[in-house]
Design a protein that fits this description.
about 200 residues, alpha+beta, Alpha-Beta Plaits, three-stranded antiparallel beta sheet, two-stranded antiparallel sheet
């Protein structure tokens, strides 16, 4: 019994050294981040993006399903009604306030699955660290996709002769010629007309 204990006491460290020596001759996997950034996979879950229709109107209809689906309670959405004088999306509603708190977000993607209009997707951007908690709360303006050549910034009128359904069927391919940006009376997140008394 004493002899077996002595042999096993000798074999355990030798087995450990064997693993060490084996790893010493393998190719190193060290990445020189941030000097050399590795490209992420196409389906990587990074920072969120609020998408637009091809003419520049927003896809978000302010339904708040993403906020309800979020297990970390990191999303805040406040919907509002569109008017013909100030139209942000083709439907009757739009997301007036949209915020994602990246101090809480776990980048799980459940909000993406919940979105009925494909307004919310995830980008490959992963460098979200900041020294301030306040800077980790991204607003609608920070999350909105950039404008392309065929787009006019919202608010503006819908494409003449098209309906909300036509937008989701992909029949609108860009802004109508002569489309101009409407005056933003509600000022997005404030919800008060310009010059209103506080």
């Amino acid at each position: 019994m004493e002899r077996r204990r002595t042999v096993s006491d000798f074999q355990n460290p030798v087995a450990g050294f064997g693993v060490t020596f084996k790893a010493m001759f393998k190719k190193r996997l060290t990445e020189q981040y941030p000097e050399q950034q590795k490209t992420t996979a196409p389906r990587f879950h990074g920072r969120h993006q609020l998408n637009r229709h091809p003419d520049g109107l927003e896809k978000c209809v302010g339904c708040e399903l993403c906020a309800w689906a979020c297990p970390a309670d990191a999303i805040y959405v406040e919907g509002a009604d569109n008017t013909e004088e100030e139209r942000y999306s083709p439907g009757e509603r739009y997301g007036r306030v949209y915020q994602i708190n990246y101090a809480r977000c776990i980048l799980c993607g459940l909000c993406i699955e919940a979105c009925p209009t494909r307004a919310l997707t995830m980008t490959n951007e992963f460098e979200l660290a900041d020294s301030s908690r306040e800077n980790l709360i991204y607003t609608k303006e920070q999350l909105l996709a950039g404008l392309e050549d065929t787009m006019v910034d919202s608010p503006h009128a819908i494409f003449p002769g098209m309906t909300e359904q036509d937008y989701y069927l992909g029949l609108v391919e860009g802004a109508a010629p002569g489309t101009v940006r409407q005056v933003a009376v509600s000022k997005g997140e404030k919800g008060e007309p310009e010059g209103a008394d506080s």
